[in-house]
Amino acid sequence: MIGKFPEIITCNETKVQLKQAMAGYIASLICADINLLKNNDGKVSAEKVAIFLPKLEAALNTIGGYQLPENTDAIINAIVNGNGESCDYGNAAELLADTYEGEILIKDYNETTKTSEKVNEGLVKEMTSLLPCFGIFDDCDDIILLLKRMHEIKLSEGKLFGKFKFKQTGKTFTGTNFTIDGIDVERMNILYLGEANKDYQLTMAEYEVTETGFMIKQNGEAVIKIVISYDDNNSSTKKDLKNYLFWEKESAEITYSDPFPNPTLRKNSNNSNVGKFGCPRTISGATCSYDDYPELVMGNKSHHGLDILASVGTELKSMYKGEVVEVIRSYAKKKEDTDSYFGCDYNANSFGNIVVMKYEFKDGLIGIDGKKYNTIYAKFCHLDEVDATIQVGEKIEVGNRLGTCGCSGNAGGVDSKEEFHLHLETNTINSFSTSTGARKINPESLFKNGIKK
Questions:
Q1: pLDDT tens for each residue of 104-126
Q2: 300, exposed or middle or buried, with CB in 10 Å at 0-12, 13-18, 19+?
Q3: Distance (Å, whole) CA 331 – CA 354
Q4: From residue 444, how far is each of 192, 383, 448 by CA, in Å?
Q5: Alpha helices in 226-295 (DSSP H)
Q6: Quick one: which of 329, 266, 334, 263 has its CA closest to 303?
Q7: What pTM value is reported for the model?
Q8: Residue 159's pLDDT band (cuts 50, 70, 90)
């Protein structure tokens, strides 16, 4: 894959010869690896070129102070004939040589002596850290290079060199007792499941967590299987590797789910606004945190969330795709109506069982201050139970079940069972204490279909 330097470079060569030699060499390098700069449509990606050039220049500089012309990105596009199906090496070399006029390619030129073998050896060494096995993996048996390649793709969020191809299906990479970027791995097998000699453009965003490791996919097809060994005392290895290798790709359009069917605002005979966000209640001596937002002031008592009617046992679903950041499941399920709190596990100063989700919005949500916010934390309160599968750090798909609604915490203090509800708070930070003050996000903004009032 790496182009071969055309001639031996010595201190007796002229600068013109050196420029032509370097131009030809870099042209052959670019032509050799041009496929790594393409998108799935076969056209060169400007984003990939932008990522590739600084890394290539760093590699060239490390082995001898070589520099790239300023307009190399334009030259790459000139090299490729229209649709990226071929690479005009001669044209590339000529264009590159012309751009080197007046530039110094090698530091301390008169003292520099490098043979083509040394140049190739040094550049291959540098480029290997960037392009392990140069994207083909024909005869690559270095599991660490393969993992680093995956990590590079993850960091670029699928923009950088996502090409994988192997000569044979079933090829296995094995590593034992190794460390990669601070992660200690007892044993790992990487098994290639894809077709032989087929190009796969893996984004490192399409994957599945399995009992023994991970499955990397392209368009639903399982391409690479990773199996790791870990025990209960080293379960963090799997989590660390997941963070090292994968990223979460946001859909072009965020899908949405109501937390449960027909969400309806809580009311009672004394106050039709009791469940609203802001200051919907009046209590002697209370203070309102939302005085700067008159449309939210209906009384003097702050209510930092939204109360949505939900009978005990109502299935609660995640409204968007997100991550679990906090769970409390220490409160008991509702019992029979045997006391003044309807059998609820009551605590006047608590929201009971809760799940806090972190949601990301590409286009942002408008806060009560008129500003856009991309990261939103949503706190679902008073749950009867939180599902055992819901754990901090887990990625949750839209519509996935979080648990069931209930009356734990202070929700048992309502006037009647018909007022049992889900209390939903939203904020731009993961803080929901009284001292936090006004929440910047009205929970109603999460309901794409609105709520019944």
A1: 333 333 333 343 444 444 444 44
A2: middle
A3: 10
A4: 47, 19, 8
A5: 236-245
A6: 266
A7: 0.49
A8: low
